[in-house]
Design brief:
This protein has 490 residues and is α+β, with helices and mostly antiparallel strands. The chain is 35% helix and 28% strand. It has three domains: 225 residues, BirA Bifunctional Protein, domain 2; 99 residues, Anticodon-binding domain (Rossmann fold); 71 residues, C-terminal domain of ProRS (Translation Initiation Factor IF3, 2-Layer Sandwich), CATH 3.30.110.30. Helix 2 packs across helix 6. The chain binds one RNA strand of 77 nucleotides through helix 1, strand 13, strand 16, helix 10 and helix 11.
Length: 490
Amino acid sequence: MSKEITPRGTDYAQWYQDLVIKAGLAEPSAVRGCMVIKPYGYAIWEKMQQALDRMFKDTGHSNAYFPLFIPKSFFSKEASHIKGFAKECAVVTHYRLKSTPDGKGIEVDKEAKLEEEYIVRPTSETIIWSTYKGWIQSYRDLPILVNQWANVVRWEMRTRLFLRTAEFLWQEGHTAHATRDEAVEETMKMLGVYAEFSEKFMALPVIKGVKTPFERFAGAVDTYCIEALMQDGKALQAGTSHFLGQNFARAFDVKFTTKDGTRDFVWASSWGVSTRLMGALVMAHSDDDGLVLPPMLAPYQVVIVPVYRNEEQLEKIRAYADGIIGALKAKGISTRFDDRDTHKPGWKFAEYEMKGVPVRLAIGPRDLENNTVEVARRDTREKTNYQAVDIDVKVTHLLNQIQENLYDKALDFRERSTYHADSMEEFEKLIGNGGFVYAHWDGKTETELKIKERTKATVRCIPLESRREKGKCILTGDPSPQKVLFARAY
RNA sequence: CGGGGUGUAGUUCAGUCCGGUAGAAUGCCUGCUUUGGGAGCAGGAGGUCGUCAGUUCGAAUCUGGCCACCCCGACCA
């Protein structure tokens, strides 16, 4: 029988979970709230990492690594920061185990209590700024442009594979600057990097914006974000970039001497994307048959499946395929030739569709006779017979087409799912169907919360690139400088 | 953390009400036939029924505690 997943229309959340598990991306682990990222899922994450890391290096950043454990006292130095994270921190209190008196088990050695407890990092601003204090004396030491790839822990109540897990992987950039303008510029630059990555690699259009005070990162002056729309009409924050002002410099007393000899606190930014992007990737393009991957992030872009009756035929196909594989690899296309005898072609077709491989080539006896290849593209499910000549050029073109098509489809979906509401009645009607809804808001947290309570929708961001048309708040009627972006969100 | 649900073979589940030797499908293994869309037939292996205690001659089944997972809410990247 076939390996099936729940259709999106039946139960979107179940579809997502089935897909993540059956495509071999990740699975729940023995540890509450933590997942195992499986090789195929991790391969996609590695592709993301490679692309992002290249972009970070190209914008002048270097990688470094800071400790997993953060002394509790560091954590409490920035008041709003601790308030934001306190409820979800794992705490290390002891450093040794011992055998239980009956010798059968093991228990915490109460004697080995830490003088000061450690927090398992939920983010690294505090440990990094306590370190930067020692690195920075003068404007000559600035800027510091550092990124780290790391795991962090946020003790979430309810978890979902990739979208929200107690432990997740991410990168966090932490930069230090001599001026406010420079730190703001850095914040915006990295927001741009994330938007470019999302659109170019993930084929996922995003809205750039600034968060409301309510949604702002704990400890930031301003939080910027990119917001994407998933197929079920819910919004997902795909990346954040924070202008931290001098908040952490003040908290950790990081001052520098300026050119003209005065002393000032250092200006900061931080920015991150996480394995949550994997969830965004799945929910952006995939269908009821499984994952659909954009070629730019597919662990292998092309899979070749031989169709044969006997060993002799397989050898002929292998020879025929070798030429094609060589040509594809020369074009930089990652290709897998699946000649496993343990599974039949039909099984493999279904399996690679589940795994979202963008292009599948099937080669059988008929192709050897006619000098053809059967080409199937995952995004549209089209199957065509190509002449084998110049197959590398054709596949290159096809991969580009698929990448573009996925972006266009996602953009088209977002546009069809974006609405404007000029009254609360209109808003409530629209928001129920999912999608982005632009509406006027008076800028007050109180209003935002009331709208959330009534509709479950939140202000995703105040878009950076929308027209500044004045109007009246849909709830209070108070003046509003521009429409903001509302949605129900992950 | 609140409400609801579920724990039985690798997986999905039946059996639980009404206690009496552990079941199906699928997957797995072997052989033969197959191979252009998740193959067919035959044979085979596989479970201290989440866990701990209690009731009983006897517990997957009844009682209680604990644990885990899933769904819905509150919180979050």
